[in-house]
Amino acid sequence: MSEKWEIRFTKQAKKDVDLLPPKLRQKLRAILVNTVANDPYAGKKLLGDLAGSYSIRLTHKDRLVYSLDEANRIVYVERAWTHYGQ
Questions:
Q1: Neighbours of 4 (CB within 10 A)
Q2: Which CATH superfamily is domain 6-82 in?
Q3: Any idea what the Cα angle at residue 9 is, between residues 8 and 11, rounded to 5°?
Q4: What is the pLDDT of residues 26-80, one digit of tens each?
């Protein structure tokens, strides 16, 4: 089994996480630890303005958006909030 990837949060992602209810924070943590840290390519590859980033659904409207530093095996969490502008 290969090493897990390191997870880091951008300033914006930290603000997003602070706005999430506790249950959703737990779900986010589980997704990061159990899925993204092991296989960061598991998310949906994004196109357009977010090309190069990946997305995993947290709820019907909320998404986890992250990018990768492949050379250093670091996952940068960019957003953890709605993409519907609320």
A1: 14
A2: RelE-like (3.30.2310.20)
A3: 145
A4: 999 999 999 999 999 999 999 999 899 999 999 888 899 999 999 999 999 999 9
Predicted pLDDT at 25:
95
Domain edges within the chain: 6-82
Q: Is the pTM of this model over 0.70?
A: yes
Instruction: Return the half-sphere exposure (C-beta side, CA atoms, 13 A cut-off) of residue 66.
Output: 31
Q: How far is CA 43 from CA 4, 27, 62, in A?
A: 16, 15, 14
Residue in this structure with the two tokens 């709605």, named with its chain if needed: 82
Asked if residue 3 lies in contact with residue 73, where contact means CB atoms within 8 angstroms, the answer is yes
Q: Is 84 exposed, middle or buried (0-12, 13-18, 19+ CB in 10 A)?
A: exposed
Phi-psi region of 65 (alpha: psi -120 to 50; beta: other; left: phi over 0): beta
